[in-house]
Amino acid sequence: MIDRTFLTMGLALLGVVVFAQLKPASPDPVEDVRARETAFYIDKAHQ
User: Rounded distance, CA 6 to CA 17, Å?
Assistant: First the structure.
């Protein structure tokens, strides 16, 4: 059975990639993704 944490992280990463494709390109896409990931994990930690 696949580890639930691994699956959740995979889905989150896929979501970030899809969202980055849909949204207009920012000046620094890498930094934008990193900032969004950080916000996501901080949000998870506070729940």
Answer: 17
Helix axes 29-46, 4-22, angle to 10 degrees: 140
pLDDT tens for 1-47 read 668 888 898 888 888 888 777 766 556 667 777 888 888 887 887 76
**Contacts with 16 (C-beta within 8 Å, 6 or more apart), sequence order:** 33, 36, 37, 40
The length of the chain, given as a count of residues: 47
Q: Where are the domains of the chain?
A: 4-46
